[in-house]
Amino acid sequence: MADEDLHQPHDKLFKEGFSDPANASALLRQHLPAEVAALIQWDQLKLIPGSFLDDDLRHSHSDLLFSAPLAADPESSVCVHLLFEHQSTRDPFIALRLLRYMVRIWEEWIRLFGNSKPLPVIFPVVLAQDRRIWKLTTQFSTLFGNAASLDSLRPFLPDFAFRLIQLAAIPFDAIRGTPDGIFVLRVLKAEPIGRLLGNAVWDNNLLANVSRRLFDRFISFLFARTDPIDRPRFIRKIQAVRNPALRTSAMTLAQQLRQEGIQEGFNTGKQEGRMEERTYSRRQSVLEALDLRFGPIPPGLRGSLNAIAPPEKLRTLHRTAIIADSLESFAASL
Q1: Residue 53 CA from chain centroid, whole number
Q2: What pTM, to 2 d.p., does this model score?
Q3: Which whole number is the average pLDDT over 10-38?
Q4: Contact partners, residue 216, CB within 8 Å, separation at least 6
Q5: Is the dihedral of CA 28, 29, 30, 36 positive or negative?
Q6: Is 6 a residue whose pLDDT tops 60?
Q7: 311-323 and 244-268 helices cross at what angle (nearest 10)?
Q8: How does DSSP assign 154-191, residue by residue?
Q9: Distance (Å, rounded) from C-alpha 283 to C-alpha 302?
């Protein structure tokens, strides 16, 4: 499997969907307070390159930073920092981490603009993937306990609020936004509850409007996860996709990723039994390509394939299975 798809699959899927300001604005406008959303010129939302995360958290977190002018004061800017948490444990001090990220954003702002522009107001937004709903305060000052309630101390305490979007609390059919944004959120919600092959993700009405690039990223995401997918069910799901561009692309990419995964396994695995495993894997690739394109394979044809062992012959048959017009034309090549 390509190295770029092996590492940080959650990060890549999240950023593939929400680096697009149109997808991000459709999400953020729903979850920021209405009076705040009304202040922002959403049509001028821009992605700011870079990340502000702690290095030791990059394996379980992703972030995107956007800026936009204020509707009432185009000379002033606001920033929205979208933090994606794909970890399974609640962090009671997440507000403290958000404050640290906010300071880094302001420091970068000063580096870029000096004192020529006022600091932007930052709206922190946390997108949580966990299957359980977090019981978590979203007000920073509560971290100080009872001291936050004392009027004499309040002027000395930093404070801000953040928005917490919990996918566990949102039904699949209640997720709103652009088609690409909805699809990414459904995938992220489905993963921790074991429903990546469920109908909410493979909704043909939704997939009719999902970009091919994002759907390809989703297929890569499935193959990059540590938990193996139910391959026969996955094949049936691809066959049922009504969007022909997505279906063809997914079949091709799935075959490519599977072959690359097999090769990587050979390169790092034990030497003993390599030839037998390679023969079996190549034969399975041929069978899966036929199953993806033409449906169930007749027992006689399956038996003929199982009798073929030479690697070069199986490699040729795999290519033939991808381009053949029918099962009959493929069988003629045996």
Answers
A1: 18
A2: 0.75
A3: 94
A4: 249, 250, 253
A5: positive
A6: no
A7: 170
A8: GGGS---B-EEEEGGGS-GGG--S-HHHHHHHHHHHHG
A9: 10
Question: Could you give the residue ranges of the DSSP H alpha helices within the chain?
Answer: 3-6, 9-18, 21-31, 34-37, 94-113, 179-190, 204-207, 212-224, 231-239, 244-268, 274-294, 299-306, 311-323, 327-331
Per-residue pLDDT at 141 exceeds 80: yes
Domain map (residue ranges) of the chain: 3-145+156-223, 227-331
Which tens digit of pLDDT belongs to each residue from 193-244? 999 999 999 999 999 999 999 999 999 898 887 677 888 888 889 989 999 9
Judged by phi (left if over 0) then psi (alpha if -120 to 50, else beta), residue 50 lies in: left
- Tally of CB atoms within 10 A around 285: 20
DSSP output for 16-73? HHHSSHHHHHHHHHHHS-HHHHTTB-GGG-EEEPS----GGGTTTEEEEEEEEEBSS-
Indicate the pLDDT class of residue 45, thresholds 50, 70 and 90.
very high
Query: Which DSSP state fits 146?
Result: G
Determine the Cα angle at 276 with ends 224 and 320, to 5°: 70
pLDDT digits (tens, 9 = 90+) for 239-276: 899 999 898 888 888 887 776 655 554 444 444 445 66
Residues listed for the chain: 334
